[in-house]
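Annex B. Sample input.
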Amino acid sequence: MLSRTADNLYWLSRYVERAEYLARILDATQRLSSLPLAYVGSTNEWESAVATAGCATAFFKQYDEANEENVTDFLAFSTANSSSIRACFEMARSNARSVRTALTVEMWDAINGTWLELKRYGNGPTSREEFSRFLRWVQESSLRYDGSAYRTMLRNDAYWFSRLGVYLERADNTARILDVKYHLLLPADERVGGPLDYFQWAAILRSVSALNAYRWVYRESLKPWLVADLLILKEEMPRSLASCYEAIVRNLDQIAGSYGRQGPAQRQARGIRTRLQNSRMDGIFQRGLHEYIGEFITENNGLGGAITEQFLI
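Annex B, continued. Sample output.
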């Protein structure tokens, strides 16, 4: 396979996954901001949404205040934000057009149909209810594309590069959600385990479709260390860091077997997976969750660079 084709497939999947992630973050933030002040306190959930998306610097160059109107426009529709939902779907379709013959009919219909439907929203929905429907549509569009890829693609290098994009992006997103919760959402004078903490953790779990999974696994009220355990170490949880790296290693090994050679990307991925497998929550919290996640994000970005150098240039 040409490296250019692999690069298009890889980034196509990353952009679709990122669009879904932004929709989930905006949905969770909208839920939090709708709660009475007695529950949500004085925190600025909209500012935390920008931070979770990794766009804070770019956002505050354009806006003075992180409020609902500014944040929803910037993260969903702004052409000035290269990571907005609109920009992600535009780049996804551009990559899809470049590798049209590598996609199945169902995959092309899913991504092209999403782009055409997005154009009908213009500058964005006119009400909060309509915006909620838009966010659900974004998530459904991502699931439709992902499902068509999973159900119709031949299991070859095109499929494996596509899956790498999904899981690298998903691991980064889950890590950022956890990091922002611990550093920005909970005010310094609010105790862990209080009502504010509970509703924020519930919103975080909903943003990764993990609230029911938490109840099934732990059968306890929401506790920060158990939420972190679910989203970092539980391989059974599809969006956990451990699950993502199990899939990343598996797909990299498939590529290595197909091309008959290993490389730095395979070694780095196995190293990160091994550290996740050897981690325990008491050790992570003793050392500091923020520091642990910060290192993971750096390593995940480093793996993305290694994959680019090894396969995509």
